[in-house]
Amino acid sequence: MALGPWKFESSRPHHLQELIPDRAKIIAQGVFMTEPIQALATSPDTDKARTIEALLPELVEAIRAGQLEAMRAEVLALHPADLGDVLEGLSRDDRTAVVEVFGDQLPPELLIEVEGVVLEDVLDTLDDDVISERLTELNSDDRIDMLEDLDEEAKQRILANLPEAARWAVEDALRYPESSTGRLMAREFVTVPADWNVGQTIDFLRANPDLPDDFYDIYLVDEAYRPVGSVSVSHVLRTRRAVTLTDVAQGDLRVFPPELDQEELAHTFRQYGFSSAPVADAETGRLVGVVTLDDIVHVIDEEAEDDLMRLVGLGSVSDINRSSLQTARNRFIWLSVNLGTAVLASMVISLFQGTIREVVALAVLMPIVASMGGNAGTQTLAVAVRALAMKDLRARKAVQFITREALVGLFNGVGFALVAFVFSALWFQDVILGTVIAVAMLINLIVAGLSGTMVPIILDRLKIDPANASAVFLTTITDVVGFFVFLGLAAAFLV
Predict the structure, then answer these.
(1) Which of 120, 320, 342, 466 is buried most deeply by CB count within 10 Å?
(2) Which residue(s) pair with 291 in the sheet?
(3) Domain check: are 268 and 149 in the same one?
(4) Where does a domain end: 311, 344, 361?
């Protein structure tokens, strides 16, 4: 049998029997035994991938045979996250069939585990009363997370069926800017007067049935409901009853305004290792909500995904469950922007039509110069955008970063210039041509390193999202510079 958590600190070794109390002492002290570790580790429910892969074909087969009801117990036994993955793996018609049969018993957490068109399909299939019932079982932050991405008509329809208290909490959250702390925070938290002791707090926690199911910290408030400190549940449980909460409370309590951008909040959590943080009204100082670590993990994941999508010109949309037409429409916009930049590069090429006609080899070698510059710049750009998102590029560090990337471009430029010289000189039997492409390669890689760092930094200073716009500018710069230098040198020395 595995014992509950024990912590032993000693400067000398102990025998195991000395460290583990006997069974009588364990029972007397109220220490509960856990299940064997081996049994927990080998539980079949831990193999998510295998469970879903095995279940999906069986589920589809049951739908086709009209025997879906027979799989009720197995489907509803899934964790909400796994059930969400199952629904996303089904076609729209099969997904609708599952929701129709099991809708009255679907876990409320399922509504926050699916998104995009899958969520829309679920909501379209469920009755409004069922949706309302499920939403009231969720925390306020989860309700907001689900509702904020719906279209206005669907949002108002669902809100109209919510109880007054739940509806007010959602409407209050929606008045804050998108991606703000006010949208992210939960309205469920635990507060006690600042002059209470540990015993009063424990009695309150045990006697109050309306407390949140899960919480990490207890917030101390004054008469005006302003947070003046916090104490973790673990500290309360480990402290004698007579000790006042202010004696064990966190000394430096950080309080955040609801208008704060969630990305800034996530950075603070990451920087200082918070598990939760209070949110107070900027004008009154009253405690209005709390943000927990699970919310921050979602924000970090969302921001990273958003940056990635924007870097490749997909905007902020990455829903793989969208239709082909919706996906094509979204990508068309960004491809149109790239077309404009490509036309600009082509105009540079058109200035040297005569040179290209005289030396046909230039047409063969041009793409090499442009593509090497673009790829090198993209590498630098990815590092720069991520560093900006992580708040790692402060003024002094930005100068060091730009210098470093310029040197990287120089070193790589020298290496690939030599390769290009040897390759071109041997292929076309022309040393001057090899020299031209070598010099162009060197210059373009240095420019790629500089532009890959400076473009996102400048855009960030101008309050423009560097992840959204940097790639377009970078591609234009490396193409224009690469073509202009290569063809310009060719015009000067080969024609």
Answers:
(1) 466
(2) 277
(3) no
(4) 311
